[in-house]
Amino acid sequence: MKYGYFDDKAREYVITTPRTPLPWINYLGCENFFTLLSSTGGGYSFYRDARLRRLTRYRYNNCPLDQEGFRIYIKDGDIVWNPGWQPVQTELDRYSCRHGLGYTVIEGERGGITARQEFMVPRGDNCLLIRFTVSNGGDATRSFKVFPYLEFCLWDAMDDSSNFQRNYSTGEVEVTASAIYHKTEYRERRDHYAVFWSNRPADGFDTSREAFIGAYNSPAHPKAVFGDGCTGSVAHGWQPVAAQQFDLELQPGESCSILFGLGYIENPEEEKWEAPGIVNKVRAETLMARYADDDAFDSAMSALRAYWEELLSGYQVSSESAPLDRMVNIWNQYQCMVTFNMSRSASYFESGIGRGMGFRDSCQDLMGFVHIIPARARERILDIAATQFPDGSAYHQYQPLTKKGNADIGSGFNDDPLWLIAAADAYLRETGDWSILDEIVPFDNDPSLAQSLLEHLRRSFNYTRTHLGPHGLPLIGRADWNDCLNLNCFSAHSGESFQVSGPSEGPVAESVFIAGMFVKYGRSWADICRHAGLEQEAEDADKAIAAMETTVLDAGWDGAWFRRAYDAFGQVIGGKECEEGRIFLEPQGMCVMAGIGKESGQAAQSLASVQEHLDTKYGIVLLQPAYTRYHLELGEISSYPPGYKENAGIFCHINPWIVCAEAELGHGDRAFEVYRKTAPAFIEDISEIHRTEPYVYSQMIAGKDAVSFGEAKNSWLTGTAAWSFLGVSQAILGVKPTLDGLQIDPCIPASVSGFTLSRRYRGARYEITVENPDGVQHGVKEMLVDGCPLAGNVIPVRDAGSTVQVRVIMG
Ligand code: BGC
Ligand code: NOJ
Q: Residue 266 has what pLDDT?
């Protein structure tokens, strides 16, 4: 069952009922100011950091769901309704929500009145804009009242939801004819305030929640709206809100619009005040003046559309499959931008106060984003590298506002260092910008410890090379990619972090997965060395990698698949002797992507085992059999009920590893079969089972051992976005940036006769036509570049600005 449809031309997903199984959200904002916005107008805004600079409140875990947001109440006689249905839930005659790229339009109609809310975060400004347009479609004059409403957060979202003895006394606002200023803590240690405004004077306002909503009411029944209107309350402490009232009258056929905004303003210390105790509003007024009328809104919207058009034009395919095209051309790339911006910080499943930017997460997100805005990827790589320790290990997370490593979680996740190589390698392949390796970057955020990025990568490689266990496999530390495989932590007490209890480093527990990474990204390191003229170092790396490959095929091979790990007692994890957790997905994906056992047959055998033991109709589960009891020596993985999350859930992030691995072996049919099982646009029809947004990936789908098999969770912020894009764009469609140029190497279903593709690469445009006359799954028999035959399939780099015609004949 569907709850809407894709409008590909407009690049929108159109939701046609407010009763989606869960709130289906969008992300507004591309750089510093962000708003999460649900299909009914729920959500919240923040400036750069969802924990430290939260502008509006949101209550996770609420009942009913999704109460807080950017609400507009319309009071038409005795009837109160919202254009987005929530929170009053008055039935609408018509409802739609169009989630587009960086904007959302929610429209509702009731009793002949149509109300539209267009939400966007304009490029270059720190604000949310909402244009509210209301029209009278009937044949009588209509008078009604309109009330916009939102609730401020007292900036630090963690403190805001816990430190009530203080916070109930600190709230402060200022009010003008058309604006409400939220200035809690501005008098002392903050240099920023928020402003909610409208582009015309309001007929009334409230800034105290108690006055507007009522102490014992909910946003579904605000006292002021259902009663006699706004009271002109000024909040002192308690809960500051922004509510306004507009008394409107519309003739038949008449429309009117009001522009609302929510802005974030910083003032330098010496310019904080206009008069004692009165906020200096000059910057806010300048911002409001920029968005004073419909023309200003329209041109900001056109600029946003043009921006996205340009960004997405970096990779556009035209194939026989509409869902494939819409994933590749629109939604998957869009989600890659969102994960790049948010890491795992703020979604409807991530509170914005938990995890900041993950080291490994951000490195992987960047791999799906680097072709969109390479310059931002460059900056990110340097930020991430600055949280690395001098020995090559790394803080596992950092805060986006401060860019400082998070000491609470610390380091000891032994896959982290290698992801930095993966990210830098992706950047170099995309851009050819070797100057990044000379950038001087701190270790441990300490400028006195700064070294070149090249040195950072070297230490990443060497960290893994020198931290090996009894079998010669890399030590796992607190966990590797699988955050829940905590082999050195032994957490026995509730409330403890599974990852942070116990020593970070044990001398025994080893990871076959990290070994696979070492081979794959070690090769990247060796290639980088070779290109940088460090031949001797490249050869040394080659030797270490070859030795690791042998070790994996020896201690890491179980007979029909790759083992997962050895625990702190030297016992096998992910092997045939295990009662539970006999086979894991991650090492199959990573080791085959690394090419381990490709010649000698283990790679193919590993993938056949995946298909036999782990595949389901909704995707590939992480392990089998699921753990049914808590294993102290394994940690969090065995804390989940069977079928959920890392305990045998369909972990979407690593399904594309199998796509890439199958493509590595030339299996185009199977690569595509795996791809389509988790790709949202392909499973739109089962939205009532899947439940999360059909336009973006979720982190996890409940596996076959779960009661709710097929139900997704944790949509939006997941490494699935980047990896799925790599899987489809590089492994299946086969357009791979290399250090020497663009390689074309499709691996597609035999039944596909071809496709065309346009790719921006290092400033040139490649117009690529792929033909598959012999119905093969893999292999290029002929390639013509601007009409001339090319030896091999790597097109040497062309001048920026040029257009290159490429014809690829498979066979
Ligand atoms: C797990 C969480 C865990 C987190 C650590 C996730 O993948 O499912 O439970 O605490 O990683 O960052
Ligand atoms: C989510 C985490 O953000 C990511 O870093 C990890 O790799 C996966 N979960 C798997 O545990």
A: 98
Report which protein residue has its CA nearest ligand 1's atom 6: 483
- Mean of all residue pLDDT scores within the chain: 97
Residue type present at position 534: L
From CA 712, how far away is CA 700, in angstroms rounded? 6
Q: Quote the CA–CA distance of 595 and 616 in Å, as a whole number.
A: 25
Query: What is the rounded CA–CA span in Å between residue 666 and residue 656?
Result: 15
Distance (Å, rounded) from C-alpha 39 to C-alpha 55?
20
pLDDT for the residue numbered 141: 98
Per-residue pLDDT averaged across 62-71, rounded? 95
Closest ligand to the CA of 343: 2
541 CB neighbour count, 10 Å cutoff = 25
Handedness of CA 452, 403, 656, 426 (dihedral sign): negative
Residues 98 and 116 sit within 8 Å (Cβ to Cβ): no
Helix (H) or strand (E) holding 130: strand 127-136
C-alpha–C-alpha distance, residues 807 and 527, integer Å: 28
Angle between the N-to-C axes of helices 332-342 and 359-367, in degrees from 0 to 180, rounded to the nearest 10: 150
361 lines ligand 1 (CB under 6 A): no
To test the pocket of ligand 2, the residue of 414, 653, 657, 717 to mutate (highest count of ligand atoms within 8 Å of its CB) is: 653
Residue among 160, 365, 425, 483 flagged as catalytic: 483
Say what the alpha-carbon torsion angle 131, 132, 138, 143 is, to the nearest 10 degrees: -140
Alpha helices for 327-433 (secondary structure H): 332-342, 359-367, 374-385, 416-431
Taking the centre of ligand 1 as the mean of its atom positions, its distance from the CA of residue 525, in whole angstroms, is: 29
Strand partners, 810: 780
Q: Ligand 2 in contact with 68 (CB < 6 A)? A: no
The answer, yes or no, to whether any atom of ligand 1 lies below 6 A from the CB of 653, is no
CA angle centred on 558, ends 554 and 564, rounded to 5°: 95
294-346: pLDDT as tens digits:
999 999 999 999 999 999 999 999 999 999 999 999 999 999 999 999 999 99
Query: Annotated catalytic, 483?
Result: yes
**Residue type, position 533, single letter:** G
Q: Which two tokens stand for residue 319?
A: 């194939």
Query: Which ligand gives the minimal distance to the CA of 481?
Result: 2
Q: Please, are residues 656 and 747 in contact by the beta-carbon 8 Å criterion?
A: no
> Using CA positions, which residue lies closest to atom 12 of ligand 1?
483
Q: What is the DSSP code (8-state) at residue 627? A: P
Q: Given this model, what pLDDT does residue 598 score?
A: 98
* 399 — pLDDT class (breaks 50, 70, 90): confident
3-class DSSP state of 215:
coil
Ligand 1, atom 7: closest residue by C-alpha: 483
Q: Detail the DSSP E strand segments found in 156-209.
A: 173-175, 179-182, 192-198, 204-208
Give the distance from CA 541 to its chain's centroid: 33
- What are the pLDDT digits (tens) for 565-605? 999 999 999 999 999 999 999 999 999 999 999 999 999 99
CA distance 102 to 151: 22
How many Å apart are CA 126 and CA 356, to the nearest integer? 21
Q: What is the DSSP string of 68-136?
A: -B-EEEEEETTEEE-TT-TTT----SEEEEEE-SSEEEEEEEETTEEEEEEEE--TTSSEEEEEEEEEE
Sign of CA dihedral 489, 494, 497, 498: positive
Type and span of the H or E element at 793: none
